[in-house]
Amino acid sequence: MEPSKIQSVEQLEDLLSEPTAGAVAAMGRLKGDLMLLGVGGKMGPTLARMARKASELAGVSRRIIGVSRFSSGTQQESLQRHGIETIGCDLLDEAAIQKLPEAPNIIYLAGMKFGSTGQESLTWAMNAYLPSLVCKKFEHSSIVAFSTGNVYGLAPVSLGGSVETDAPNPVGEYAMSCLGRERIFEHFSRTSAIPMAILRLNYACELRYGVLVDLAQQAASGKPVSLEMGWFNIIWHADVNAMTLQCFDHVSSPPFVLNVAGPELLGVREVSEKLARQMGKPISFVGKESPSALLSNAQRAFQLFGKPRVKAEQLMNWVADWIGNGGTTLERPTHFESRDGKF
């Protein structure tokens, strides 16, 4: 049973790393060690912890290895306290990648989004060149790689979200580089027979970042909320973690592609009004809803893994309480409202 409130970062991270029964079963079937590349980002730390918990609950002894530059020493120490081995590595350094230990199972989390405008060449290097280095090093491994729903581009709201068989139509250099990432992974999967899954995420949410946090912070500060990107999806970060681990059951060559998103089609106006009301704040808006938005249909994931444990309504309650009471954030706005692909 989920708590009515989340009162500390420690409690939050414990919840974010709590595995589902499906994740435990998947880690029981998985053979060998697991390495997470780019573990230092938003998703990585609690995903690594969930992998550790699920493996232990399944009675499986394995190394869980987190690789990152680790600009923050506290993060590396925290992972180690939770049974995660850590390796400091600049993933754009080919020689450093070659020195990494072999691991039969790889979760690829590396990428660049924020600050990509003005640093387009670095964005392409991180998002489209780095996958080739990883595939050359780990050509005998299974790889679950994160991508983004941005590769689809804007679609009519009336259709309910893009599905995996829709043709990509990326807008802006970030989204184009992410499609490049997918194509590089697909190339090596086909030519080297690497079993892979590519997860198109749209959008993970917890109490320190995500679209709900962006909207709650705007309401708390009195800033008007733009309605032009009038609709969005969210999914509880812990449910993303659990689905990610279960995707090792579905890796294939060519890659298995899966949308990971929440089941609800959420309106910016309605959600913002609810968050503001719960925080006791006024709310104002600018613009009007466009007939298109960046939306993903994740029915395929739900058929495989079931619906997310936490519904959007619960997430809104948690976020309103957290932001309304001055809870810490990661200070990484999603910029979900961008319709020109500039981040």
What features would you describe in this structure?
The chain has 343 residues and is an alpha/beta fold. The chain has one domain: 3-Layer(aba) Sandwich (Rossmann fold). It contains 12 helices and 15 strands. A 7-stranded parallel sheet has the order 3-2-1-4-5-7-12, sandwiched between helices. The protein has a two-stranded antiparallel sheet with strand order 6-15. Strands 8-11 form a two-stranded parallel sheet. Strand 1 (34-37), helix 3 and strand 2 (64-68) form a beta-alpha-beta unit. The longest helix has 21 residues, at 172-192. The chain is globular, with a radius of gyration of 19 Å. The mean pLDDT is 95.
